[in-house]
Amino acid sequence: MLHGSLAEPETYALLTVDSVWRRAFDWVLQLPADAPLGEVELQGREMFASIQEYPTLARHEARFESHQEHVDLQFTLFGGEAIEWMPRGQLGPDGPFANDVQFWLPPPDPITTLAQTAGRFAIFFPADAHRPKVRLTGHDRVRKGVIKIRRHLIH
């Protein structure tokens, strides 16, 4: 898992040596806060973005998840949410794996909580279980983007 600020390029500059990450971050940086909801293909279904907006939830209402085939680059356009993180190997499955999503039973205490507000980003790799949608103090809604990048594209 990586977490940083889009306003501080040094937090992601080393990634952009790779053309896939450069394309992803270039696209995010030109995106307006009021970008329309929906999906945009950046490289077919190999790399695509989803712009979403939703109300945040109480911690116990949100679920941990991870993916096998995709890496998530999540970024906040406005509002905010907490995203909790934990290595997926420390969690037990909560149902079957389907559609590149495995849900996980929550631990008693997460290892790390990320405060995702406008201009923040987080990258979740297949080994990273993450619980988005958690209410962050002062924010009851979030508008965010998620770029899904197929693992084989990343060098």
Characterization of the model:
By secondary structure, this protein is mainly β. Helix content is 8%, strand content 46%. It contains one helix and ten strands. It has one helix spanning 19-30, and strands at 2-5, 38-43, 47-55, 64-66, 70-87, 102-104, 112-117, 120-124, 128-134, 141-150. The strands form two sheets. Strands 1, 2, 3, 5, 7, 8, 9 and 10 form an eight-stranded antiparallel sheet that branches. It has a two-stranded antiparallel ribbon with strand order 4-6. Strand 2 (38-43) and strand 3 form a beta hairpin. The mean pLDDT is 96.
Topology, pairings included?
Elements: E1 2-5, H1 19-30, E2 38-43, E3 47-55, E4 64-66, E5 70-87, E6 102-104, E7 112-117, E8 120-124, E9 128-134, E10 141-150
Give a quick summary of the entry.
The protein has 155 residues and is mostly beta strands.
What is the number of strand segments? 10
Mean pLDDT across the residues is 96
Helix share bin: under 10%
Low-confidence spans:
none
> What is the SS-derived class?
mainly beta
Order of helices and strands: EHEEEEEEEEE
> How much β-strand is present in the residues?
over 45%
CA-based shape: globular
Backbone CA Rg? 15 Å
